[in-house]
Amino acid sequence: MTAAPAVPGAALFAAVDIGASSGRVIVGGVGGGKAELHVVHRFPNGVMEHDGALHWDFDALFAEVLIGLAAAADHAAAVGDVIASIGIDTWAVDYGLVDGTGTLANQPFSYRDGRGATQVGRVHGVLGPDRLYETTGLQHLPFNTIFQLAAEQAAGRNLAGLQALLIPDLIAFKLTGNRRTESTNASTTGLYDAVAGDWATEFLAALDLSAELFPPLIEPGETIGTLLPELAGRTGLTAATLVVAVGSHDTASAVAAVPATAPNFAYISSGTWSLVGVELDAPVLSQASRSANFTNERGVDGTTRYLRNVGGLWLLSESMRRWEKEAHDAGSPASASAP
């Protein structure tokens, strides 16, 4: 990565990009007809075991985000510019439950925990696989948000008064105090109508979930809010710094960045998972598509990311984690595994 351009008065932008095995904060700027990027902070990520289940250490992740934003502020100041806005992307499907005061009920579960798989039969007994696909276009994965929420119910958790914020939305909430659900990530929940571009409220009702369980939807490019004054002081950014919705599912942002010059292109996006697919104008909701287990996820500008999940770098990341545990020199997981 090269340093962001030192164009006096030019705005710079901070990107928070977190995957299941690592994260980074990047400062980007546009000048001379090109975009230039500078990684100002990298950090590892991974699941932790607590009470026999796999969770994300959200508090640690958010602390790393703030360190990265402080580094972004320092970088901008060093080149005589300012950070105009912050965008956030992470992996999909996982969420944190937040109460009316903004308190996180517990550290978010990881999709690699097996709890969702235990509820597939119960959900399909209410909403059959055909009906789910006809509305959401989402491939069957036992950790999709819809199954995780059913697991919350089965465990006896009272969801009344709580809201589910997907991980990038949870970070944005902690930065701004505003609750929104960005649409590209919403499309991975199993509770999003792929044609209407809105929540499938009949699915929520069928599963006895509140229509207010998720915050209102927001599209990439819309402003979520401005940085809370306390966090502005801690990071060195101004309180006027915008937090703007991007394709908050990391694959949505990756596909938006493909330098294609014509509409007919395919992509392979590699991280903990690899995603192989094409970009379409509308979802494909046929029985043949469901049988082939293709998924329809919302892209930036209302497009459809039609793709399959295939094996990615998770095996390498887990191997490195094991080697490090056994005191082998495996290098840095934050630099070796893409988010």
Structure description:
- The chain is built from twelve helices and 18 strands.
- The chain is an alpha+beta fold.
- The strands form six sheets. Strands 3-2-1-6-14-13 form a six-stranded mixed beta sheet. It has a four-stranded antiparallel beta sheet with strand order 15-16-18-17.
- A hairpin with a 2-residue loop joins strand 15 and strand 16.
- The longest helix has 21 residues.
- The relative contact order is 0.15.
- The N terminus and C terminus are likely disordered.
What is the CATH class name?
Answer: Alpha Beta
What's the SSE pattern? EEEEEHEEHHHEHEHEEHEEHEHEEHEEHH
Q: Let me know the number of strands.
A: 18
Q: What's the end-to-end separation, in Å?
A: 16 Å
Q: Give the overall shape.
A: globular
Poorly predicted regions: 1-9, 333-339
Could you estimate the helical fraction of the residues in percent?
25-40%
Helix count from the secondary structure assignment:
12
Category by helix and strand content:
alpha+beta
The overall average pLDDT, rounded, is 91
Radius of gyration: 20 Å
CATH homologous superfamily, by name? ATPase, nucleotide binding domain
How many structural domains does the protein architecture include? 1
CATH topology: Nucleotidyltransferase, domain 5
- For the biggest β-sheet, the strand order reads 3-2-1-6-14-13
